[in-house]
Inverse folding.
């Protein structure tokens, strides 16, 4: 006896085992007239619609002329923050660059001020609302970063919120400590001393199991390559896997550093060098591309997804949801931007938001695919085929979302 059978599926999207690299990213198994059965928290059966007629089940869901996929994975979000930054829109319109706003004490630092001032409870309720919205777009697993505290108490407050949300179990959340996200006013001009304070926090975060990964913003006016390497080494010595905000605006060589340090991912990479891109293909570091941020910052140049895939890398896509550089919950919108601005094919895009995204957060053996025995993270899309979502942009095409077998 099954709990739910999704039957009559027009197109069932079945990403292969990953990480899927290079040319293989343009391959995607899509089967027609299929069915999938859920029992408890798990995918219990996958077969043809014809075969599914004999299954005994409590509920049947008709997916005629619709599409079913694994729950999407968003491998880069800044989920927990106080306040908002709509006031910066006018500055942006006046042409003030992102890093200039930060230099003047705004941008990330304005969110730091708001986050420090808010209680854990307020942040928790706000982040839970963000999480619900993200899930409504068909996302069942996400990564969430700290980085708006920049001092012990507020960073731990953000990490506790992520832990509480993950414990609640609505979605799986992978936690990342992004203490070195900016240099707070009290350490202005003294990045190394600030970085030391963040490194000294690592043992406590490790003991309390508050994060799986660490991350650092390697950028002009923020942290240098040397500082990033120092932070990554300290993180790895304590057993954390590392991530890096790399080569977003200036080509500092963060992509090469990520490969050198065997980071699980390198994120942004708009300005990545040729050598960096070639390195990605050889190593296990997954480039996580964030075209929503490039779009929101009003830039012409997008990350070279095609170059990375041609070189043989395994590309993933994410929203970068945050209150400053990419204010959207909608991973489907990112799929459209990937098609329109980075010329990725529908097959490449699906692999980037499922299996490869899961690998970018160390969840490759439990998320991003539809497999019997895996937890039932499934989306029913009100679209006739797998090409449709990227094509019909900025809408929410998710009709039903199951997390661990439960409809959310
Ligand atoms: O990924 N680039 C650095 N950090 C975030 C933006 C955070 C913010 O502006 O609040 C990013 O774009
Ligand atoms: Fe980010």
């Amino acid at each position: 006896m099954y709990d739910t059978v999704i039957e009559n599926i027009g197109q069932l999207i079945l990403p292969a085992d990953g990480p899927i690299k290079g040319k293989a990213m343009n391959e995607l198994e899509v089967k027609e007239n299929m069915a999938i059965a859920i029992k408890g928290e798990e995918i219990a059966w996958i077969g043809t619609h014809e075969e599914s007629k004999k299954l005994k089940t409590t509920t049947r869901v008709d997916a005629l002329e619709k599409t079913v996929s694994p729950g999407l994975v968003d491998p880069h979000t800044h989920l927990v923050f106080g306040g908002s930054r709509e006031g910066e829109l006018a500055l942006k319109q006046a042409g003030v660059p992102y890093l200039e706003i930060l230099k003047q004490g705004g941008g990330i630092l304005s969110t730091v001020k708001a986050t420090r001032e808010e209680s854990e409870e307020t942040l928790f309720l706000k982040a839970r609302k963000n999480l619900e919205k993200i899930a409504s777009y068909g996302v069942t697993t996400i990564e969430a970063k700290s980085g708006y505290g920049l001092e012990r108490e507020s960073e731990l407050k953000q990490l506790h919120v992520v832990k509480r949300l993950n414990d609640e179990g609505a979605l799986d959340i992978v936690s990342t400590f992004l203490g070195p996200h900016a240099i707070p006013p009290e350490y202005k001009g003294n990045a190394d001393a600030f970085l030391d304070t963040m490194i000294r926090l690592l043992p406590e975060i490790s003991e309390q199991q508050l994060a799986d990964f660490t991350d650092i913003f390697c950028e002009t006016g923020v942290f240098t390559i040397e500082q990033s390497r120092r932070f990554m080494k300290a993180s790895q010595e304590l057993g954390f896997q590392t991530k890096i905000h790399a080569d977003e605006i200036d080509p500092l060589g963060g992509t090469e550093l990520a490969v050198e340090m065997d980071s699980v991912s390198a994120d942004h990479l708009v300005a990545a060098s040729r050598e960096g891109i070639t390195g990605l293909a050889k190593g296990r570091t997954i480039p996580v591309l964030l075209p929503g941020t490039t779009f929101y910052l009003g830039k012409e140049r997008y990350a070279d997804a095609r170059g990375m895939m041609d070189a043989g890398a395994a590309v993933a896509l994410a929203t970068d949801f945050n209150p400053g550089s990419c204010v959207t919950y909608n991973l489907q919108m990112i799929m459209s931007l990937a098609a329109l601005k980075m010329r990725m094919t529908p097959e490449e895009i699906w692999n980037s938001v499922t299996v490869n995204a899961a690998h970018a957060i160390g969840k490759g053996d439990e998320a991003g695919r539809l497999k019997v025995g895996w937890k039932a993270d499934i989306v029913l899309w009100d679209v006739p085929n797998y090409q449709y979502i990227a094509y019909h942009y900025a809408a929410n095409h998710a009709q039903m979302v199951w997390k661990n077998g439960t409809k959310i």
The pocket of fe (iii) ion (ligand 2) is lined by residues 76, 78, 245, 320, 322 (CB under 6 Å).
